[in-house]
Design a protein that fits this description.
Structural class: alpha/beta
Radius of gyration: 29 Å
Number of helices: 7
Shape: elongated
Strand content: 5-15%
Distance between the termini: 94 Å
Oligomer: single chain
Length: 415
């Protein structure tokens, strides 16, 4: 077997008939190969994974060449420096040797992981071993932190054998743009896809029972999400699930949902409208905070939904109207603070407590009417509830006007 010389491998050396290869970024691969030629470590613990991966090639020529190469490498260590160039050349650039495009694509991901910057050999070993086993029918989980901060990994689908994506499995993978998750997946771990800044769309199958906290947080390009629709076990949208997904414009929440976690959609500045399913019983603090484009919000109607949480719609500057369901008894602090276009609030007949700064800075608001707590106590409005509102705002408890009392910063209390 003739070993290649240690020159800089170039895509220009490939067979000119290899037209499908044009879809891969040529300059990026050239730069990658240059680093690989210069930085190969003969003691890298990834070597055995590399050997096993190459031996899985559909090309009989490549398998036999790799086997002979590794045998020779064991007898003659100085040849270690040609390991990566040789395998790149035989595994990636010669389609007539039998390697399929799918296998070459996987090898390309393998190369990206092999020389990912700022990664320890141990982390590269986990990532490479995970890639190598993706088609293994016995592999049921993507390990915790498997591809964390491997910025150049851009998988777009996972095999149907995967049941669990462990926490931070794809954390900070900046090149993933789409992710289609297959039926049979049951759990998506905490921050599994957090900080995937290029991720645009996610299809979550009905088999998923739980999506962990922060699973898609800081996915700035995410605009299309499909959540499980027909799974009764999917009842919770965890805290910070879509935190600061600034390009998310719409989100269809499944009817099975019962809990919306803290900050679950905070900072989704492009979200324009949201309909909460009637099964929702609990909304966490700051759930929709700083959703600056949110113009429509329909709250759930059921007997268990009894509290508007703190900072729920804080700084939702396009929100014009809100109807509070009859089941609600408490409006917590800063719930609608800074909703500068809010013009109409139907408080609901059973509200008994309004927290500090609940409507602070709602400069377009002209009338607030609360239940008649003189006839049906108790009831309380904190003194700062309307701080910073228009001087033309009028506040009533039943038929009694309490505007001046609240503007003076004095709480209104009925017992």
């Amino acid at each position: 077997m003739t070993l290649p010389s240690l020159h800089r491998l170039s895509l220009r050396e490939e067979d000119p008939t290899d037209a499908p290869f044009d879809a891969l970024r040529r300059q990026e691969i050239e730069d990658l190969l240059e680093r690989m030629n210069a930085a190969n470590d003969p003691n890298d613990p990834c070597r055995e994974n590399l050997r096993a991966f190459c031996m899985s090639s559909p090309s009989p020529y490549l398998r036999s060449a790799c086997e002979a190469f590794f045998e020779r490498l064991c007898r003659n260590p100085p040849f270690a420096n040609v390991l990566v160039p040789f395998l790149c050349h035989n595994g990636l650039y010669n389609p007539y040797q039998g390697a399929t495009r799918q296998w070459r694509r996987q090898w390309f991901l393998f190369c990206r992981v092999w020389h990912a910057p700022n990664q320890t050999p141990q982390k590269r070993t986990v990532a490479i071993n995970t890639l190598r086993r993706l088609d293994d029918p016995l592999m049921s989980a993507i390990p915790q932190r498997a591809f964390e901060r491997f910025n150049h990994v851009d998988l777009d689908t996972l095999p149907s054998t995967i049941l669990i994506i462990a926490p931070r499995a794809f954390y900070h993978c900046h090149m993933i743009t789409h992710m289609r998750l297959r039926l049979n997946l049951t759990d998506i771990g905490t921050q599994a896809f957090s900080h995937c800044h290029a991720l645009e769309s996610v299809f979550v199958p009905d088999s998923v029972n739980d999506i962990g906290p922060g699973a898609f947080a800081y996915c700035y390009s995410l605009h299309t999400v499909r959540l499980p629709e027909n799974n009764q076990a999917f009842a919770r949208l965890a805290p910070s699930t879509f935190l600061n997904c600034s390009d998310l414009r719409e989100l269809d929440l499944p009817p099975t949902l019962q809990t919306i976690g803290e900050s679950s959609m905070r900072g989704c500045i492009s979200l324009e409208g949201l309909v909460l399913p009637n099964n929702v019983q609990v909304i966490g603090d700051q759930a929709f905070r700083n959703c600056r484009s949110l113009a429509t919000l329909l709250l759930p109607y059921n007997d268990e939904f009894d509290e508007i949480p703190a900072f729920m719609c804080c700084q939702c500057r396009r929100l014009r109207r809100i109807v509070i369901p009859p089941s609600v008894e408490t409006i917590r602090a800063d719930a609608f603070e800074g909703c500068t276009r809010l013009e109409y609030v139907d408080v609901g007949p059973n509200v008994a407590y309004v927290g500090a700064r609940a409507f602070a800075g709602c400069t377009a608001l002209r009338t607030l009417r609360f239940p008649d707590w003189n006839a049906y106590p108790p009831g309380r409005i904190e003194g700062s509830a309307i701080e910073g509102c228009s001087p033309n705002l009028r506040v009533f408890v039943g038929d009694e006007e309490v505007t001046q009392t609240l503007q003076a910063g004095v709480s209104v209390n009925y017992r």
